[in-house]
Design brief:
Layout: H1 8-15, E1 25-26, H2 39-44, H3 49-53, E2 57-63, E3 69-77, E4 83-92, E5 99-103, E6 106-111, E7 116-121, E8 124-129, E9 136-137, E10 146-149, E11 155-163, H4 168-171, E12 188-189, E13 192-193, E14 197-206, E15 211-216, E16 236-238, E17 244-249, H5 254-259, E18 264-269, E19 275-277, E20 286-291, E21 297-302, E22 314-319, E23 324-327, E24 337-341, E25 346-353, E26 356-363, E27 370-371, E28 378-385, E29 388-395, E30 398-405, E31 412-414, H6 420-423, E32 431-437, E33 443-449
Parallel strand pairs: 1-4
Antiparallel strand pairs: 2-3, 3-4, 4-5, 6-7, 7-8, 8-9, 10-11, 11-14, 12-13, 14-15, 16-17, 17-18, 18-19, 20-21, 21-22, 22-23, 24-25, 25-26, 26-27, 28-29, 29-30, 30-31, 32-33
Length: 470
């Protein structure tokens, strides 16, 4: 969750392609979209809504197992036609010029120890060699929403919506009626109606070009994983040895489901089909399981109170051998997000701190939380492999990019420059940190964003932006 202030227009513009339910058309490689500024835009040198639409949007990224290469997506949008194009690029984790991997594609993943690349194109799963050759379409897999290949590369899990409820037309002989019969919650979540189906996890064998023996591990259950409304595939994780899947689900229906935030994490064993609830004693959100490198522990985020979706996100550790879960760093009074294991005892995570988001580290065997990074920026999501840490990087003057973070010094180095040519032509205003004394004698932290070429002798209209709740 990003708790850092961005100008409202910038935040809204970049949310367009980050939401789960996109409405524009992604026609991939059959369209060409230019983000070149016009002569008039360059001459004016000011940000406009039209220029915002010309920004390339950083999407998902994946770090190779050896930490040397990054796959990432950039989406461009045509303001007039509302068409979008998403391309996949490859970049060294130390920086340099990006290389186009494929035109039209999304959700790139390394697999097979970094020897192969998988991605989604036109609703199908594609694979290629790490060098970018021999592109093939995976047989036996369609109608899926997300996927994850096991660390060994011999299995794949994917999510798919499974219809389990009858529509009004099916219950009654009214084939032409456009009607919903609603007698319970949840029939609508935010901006979409229930479609009588549920997101389920399937597991199948995978040989690099074909899947077989797909099994619904939630068969018959009117529950979902990942959970609504975001359906974030980070709620599902493979164990390092490929024996287990940890996944998030809310085992409730109707009014109980609507009123509760009590999601749980389930540990599913592939060989036996048995599963256990590893967060049963917790009563709020439990999400985002991450296995330790040796597979003996699972770190996850946990909230204490049911029904309170803004509760503190605490860091929990579950020990698979003992079957016990406990909170780490009980005195830490800040949200924990983007958890990554460096080894079997050291964890890195992000935390909102004084209007920025920084990276912190801690040890599961005891010790304080240590702040790694500094700067006026937001960091995250974070990915750590083979001693290399990369992170999303954004600020009040810059849309999301990719950065490399030095684990020894905490220095943050921007390594992608998706919108460099736009920034070279557009002047951004400076930012200033301030504290204001409140009526109850507390210090209220805030940021002031000045317009370009700000003149303190002039008067300007002001926009007050208050983030969050309740």
């Amino acid at each position: 969750m990003n708790r850092y202030f961005l100008p409202a227009a910038l935040a809204a513009a970049f949310c367009i392609v980050s939401c789960s339910h996109q409405t524009g058309e992604d026609r991939g490689a059959d369209i060409r979209i230019s983000n070149e500024l016009t002569k008039e835009e360059k001459s004016a040198g000011r940000m406009t809504p039209e220029i915002l639409w010309k920004f390339g949007r950083l999407g998902s990224f994946d770090l190779s197992p050896d930490g040397t290469e990054i796959l990432y997506t950039v989406t461009d949008i045509d303001m007039k036609t509302e068409a979008r194009r998403t391309n996949i690029f490859r970049l060294s984790s130390s920086g340099g010029d990006p290389v186009l991997v494929t035109e039209g594609g999304s959700s790139p993943r390394w697999f097979g120890g970094g020897r192969s690349i998988a991605f989604v194109k036109e609703g199908r799963l594609m694979v290629m060699t790490a060098e970018g050759s021999e592109i093939i379409t995976v047989e036996g897999l369609d109608n899926f929403e997300s996927y994850s290949i096991s660390p060994q590369g011999d299995k794949i899990l994917f999510t798919r919506r499974v219809k389990l409820d009858e529509t009004a037309n099916e219950k009654y002989s009214l084939p032409n009626a456009r009607v919903r019969i609603i007698d319970d919650l949840m029939y609508r979540h935010w901006n979409y109606w229930s479609d009588y189906s549920y997101s389920h996890i399937f597991v199948a064998s995978f040989n690099g070009g074909k899947i077989s023996g797909a099994k619904d591990i939630m068969e018959g259950q009117k529950y979902e994983s990942p959970t609504a409304p975001f359906f974030d595939d980070s709620e599902i994780a493979w164990s390092p040895d490929g024996r287990y899947i940890a996944y998030t689900s809310k085992r409730m229906t109707g009014r109980d489901y609507a009123r509760s935030t009590n999601t749980d994490i389930f540990l599913y064993e592939l060989s036996s089909g048995k599963e256990i609830n590893i967060s049963e004693k917790n009563h709020g959100f439990d999400k985002y399981p991450v296995f330790s490198p040796d597979g003996s522990k699972i770190a996850f985020q946990s909230m204490a109170r049911d029904g309170y979706e803004s509760d503190l996100d605490r860091l929990f550790i579950y020990d698979i051998i003992s079957g016990k879960a406990g909170r780490l760093n009980r005195s830490w009074d800040f949200d924990v997000e983007n958890i990554n294991w460096a080894d079997n005892s050291t964890l890195y995570f992000t935390c909102a701190h004084l209007g920025t988001v920084q990276i912190f580290k801690t040890d599961i065997n005891g010790g304080d939380v240590v702040k790694l990074t500094e700067g006026v920026h937001d960091l995250g999501p974070v990915m750590l492999r083979s001693g290399v840490l990369i992170s999303g990087l954004q600020s009040m003057s810059m849309a999301p990019e990719i950065s490399a973070v030095d684990l020894s010094t905490g220095s943050v180095k921007q390594i992608s420059f998706i919108n460099k040519t736009i920034y070279e032509s557009v002047k951004m205003g400076r930012t200033e940190e301030r504290y204001i004394r409140t009526k109850d004698n507390e210090d209220l932290h805030m940021w002031i964003i000045y317009p370009p070429d700000f003149d303190p002798s002039e008067k300007y209209p002001a926009l007050l932006y208050c983030k969050g709740g309740p």
